[in-house]
Amino acid sequence: MSGYYNNWSVSDMDKYVKVPLSDEDARSLKSGDYVYLTGTIYTARDAAHKRMQEVLDRGETLPIGMKNNVIYYMGPSPAREGRPIGSAGPTTASRMDKYAPGLLDLGLKGMIGKGKRSQAVRDAIVRNGAVYFAAVGGAGALLSRAITSSEVIAYDDLGTEAIRKLTVKDFPAIVVIDAEGNNLYETAVKEYNEE
Q1: Which UniProt keywords apply (predicted)?
Q2: Is residue 164 within a helix (H) or strand (E), and if so which, with residue range?
Q3: How many DSSP H helices and E strands does the chain contain?
Q4: Residue 155's beta-bridge partner residues?
Q5: In whole angstroms, how far apart are CA 56 and each of 19, 43, 50?
Q6: Residue 99 backbone dihedrals phi, psi, to 5 degrees
Q7: Are strands 34-43 and 163-177 parallel, antiparallel or unpaired?
Q8: How does residue 77 score in pLDDT terms, banded at 50, 70 and 90?
């Protein structure tokens, strides 16, 4: 194994971060960091993004402000009794790629999903000092434990794709693309291939 893995430990890369994300916190995060988010994030998937774009195209105000906020690409399953939300795993981020640059330019500071992002999104992340996080796919039941409250705040008619305001405590994620454009999906492959 290369020295890449010998130069750090998991605890060296653990970061506890408040959300919404400050500009300073967003810029301090590095590709590969393990992050635990605490505070408020919002959910939105394909249908909600499409509707937000239509709102912007009409020159109207979005139902949520973008400034320093984090959007989690997730549509939850129904909540079980006594829980604020059901399974809450990430969806494929590339489905939001045509909308993300515009939202980043409006101040969106972070996105949580799974999978790769387009070059246009990566450029917008760098341009705006933002961050793309990955949450572990297939771990929705575990991720839901970090969600302490869930409230639909817009587009209720979209069902699971409505925009929700979530309160999270130590929500686990990994920084994939940092504010400098470093991309874990690329550097990890490069490191692996150099072994």
Answers
A1: Lyase
A2: strand 163-177
A3: 7, 7
A4: none
A5: 24, 18, 10
A6: -100, -30
A7: antiparallel
A8: confident
For tokens 């793309």, the residue is 132
**Could you tell me which residues come within 8 angstroms of residue 19 by beta carbon, excluding any fewer than 6 positions away?**
37, 38, 39, 40, 41, 69, 70, 110, 168
- Averaged pLDDT, 38-56: 97
Q: pLDDT tens for residues 109-157?
A: 999 999 999 999 999 999 999 999 999 877 888 899 999 999 999 999 9
21-194 has CATH 3.40.50.1000 classification? no
Mean of the per-residue pLDDT values of the chain: 90
**Tokens linked to 49:** 């993004």
Give the three-state DSSP class for 146. Answer: coil
d(CA 103, CA 101): 5
What are the extents of the domains in the chain?
A: 21-194
Q: What angle do CA 121, 122, 128 make, to 5 degrees?
A: 85
Measure the CA–CA gap between 18 and 87, rounded to whole angstroms: 23
Strands 147-154 and 163-177: antiparallel
